[in-house]
Amino acid sequence: MRITELLKKESIELGVSVNSKDSAIDKLAMLMEKGGRLNSRAGYIEGIKAREAQGSTAVGDGIAIPHAKVAAVKEPGLAAVTVPAGVDYEAFDGSLAHLIFMIAAPAEGADVHLEALARLSTLLMVPGFKDDLIGASSKEQFLKVIDDAETAKYGAPKNAAPQTPGESTGKAGASQANGSGYRLLAVTACPTGIAHTYMAAENLESTAKKMGISLKAETDGSGGAQNILTPEEIRQAEAIIVAADREIEMARFDGKPVVQAPVADGIHKAKELIEKAASGQAPVYRHTGGPEGSSPSAGAGDSVGRKIYKHLMNGVSHMLPFVIGGGILIALAFLFDDYAIDPSNFGKNTPLAAYLKTIGEQAFGLMLPVLSGYIAMSIADRPGLAVGFVSGLVAKMGMTFADPAGGAVNAGFLGALFAGFAGGYLVVGLKKLFSKLPKSLEGIKPVLLYPVLGILLGAAATTFINPYMGIINDGLTHFLNGMGGASRIILGMVVGCMMSIDMGGPFNKAAYVFGTAQLAEGNFEVMAAVMAGGMVPPVAIALCTTFFKKKFTKKECQSGVVNYIMGLSFITEGAIPFAASDPLRIIPSCAVGAAVAGGLSMFFGCTLRAPHGGIFVLPTIGNPLAYLAAVLSGAIVGALLLSVLKKNLSEEERG
After folding, report:
1. Contact yes or no for 258/285 (Cβ under 8 A)
2. Is 196 a catalytic residue?
3. What residues contact residue 453 under an 8 Å CB cut-off, 6+ apart?
4. β-strands 63-64, 97-106 pairing
5. What's the pTM?
6. Integer Cα distance of 124 and 130 in angstroms
7. Out of 277-286, 518-527, 599-608, which region has the weakest mean confidence (pLDDT)?
8. Active site residue: 113, 190, 196, 590, which one?
């Protein structure tokens, strides 16, 4: 696929005037929609802003490449604008963006478009290409500049077998004629694997070529790794440069000098990275049993607490799809059932309800093993996965040495949490123990020693601790069930407030995980309070931008409308762009409103069997009208408080 196949004339606009980053995003999203690439412009903008929250996609030198890979994209595409006066896109070098390409990639489906996106990212690093595009006088000329540059670098369409960065003639990544290998190797990866991955690879290779150093760059992009480094190349190389912002395979570099840096440094500081790698001063990397794809940011400099948090979040992120999918299916089963048929079998009285509830229960039942498995894998690599899964299953079954069949205790979420960490660190210990074995026995470690001994030891450790976890878990459940009146309201206020404090961060995740854990224990009121608190921030901001317009810029007022949808859909992150621009006023206001909603939800005795869904699961909520009143009350309180804290803007400031 060629670049020009992704970029339609309808999605190009030259000589645009925009006064802010947000307005540039809105303009490009509108052009993308004109090209017929989107299912939902609002959803796509949400994805773009979520990516920007991780760090600006401005690459400096007057270029920005916002991108998102989300379900709101119908088919892959590009949009482009030139901005003669420039716009502040928060570039690292302070430069204004004059050329902006926006990339849309579908969350699922074939990745045939990724080659074209990789090529575009590579061409943007070529001197003169950007200036030719900015100077284009028509859309036709703009497209011709791209087509000519792509043909010159990769060949005409009829001859062009797909090439990846590093394979075109004359690049430093091309095969070495003398067969002596490469002096330096590199791996690049950005969070979405769409643009910065390839730009960093191109810049590292071209900079190395100018310096007279042979360098090959592997790109770990959205479509998988390309230009993969071979074991022989790794063995012969003097050093490795890892410019990545997400997990990549690091075990293969054990014992080699490795320079680790963010992917942005591969774009902006290529010479510094190459000089450090070639100087012989790079630290030797030692793979000590951490994740096979441990990110450069997760190095030895992390505190113990930070490492534990990362391992936990790895488990939680893999667990949530099972919780959400299974929980909503179970909730729908109750919706489609007839309680009058057999109250004791409610949820499975009708064929449809029984089918939905059975599937939901199976998905929900995998929650604890998946949590444990991926915590263990985060700690100990692939050998930890099976150990964690089985240990989590042992915790779920409530096995004890006195009752191996299980069911004697309720270890629950806490037991699975312990099982994941115990299994992971046991495998790390086994790796260290077996490192003393002869090399000839290397092959039996992953297929025999780690699985057999790891699963046995992990299961034994979990079995031993299950009774104690059961005591804690039962005590907590009895405590929550025994809470009444003011104490339950306070609990609702606390979890509601936590959902709003950092809007997707550790506090938010802690409250959500607590809610799902209580959901598994049959305590449905906590989950209701959690979702109420999470729905408030976007709705509160939307209300404030609607009724107190003078407090916000015109662009913020337009964007605020989208937050009605996000809030009612339980997407707390919709408030992040506003919170980032004015945290001292937005966060306290939303937190107070969320606490009110959570407390009222508890006061009204609202229940929620589904761990997600917002108003779309309203029919499954116990006391639904009171629940809506709780959410609306919290949102109104948050909006009113925000209106008091924020000052009116002048007409000039509003834009």
Report:
1. yes
2. no
3. 430
4. parallel
5. 0.49
6. 6
7. 518-527
8. 190
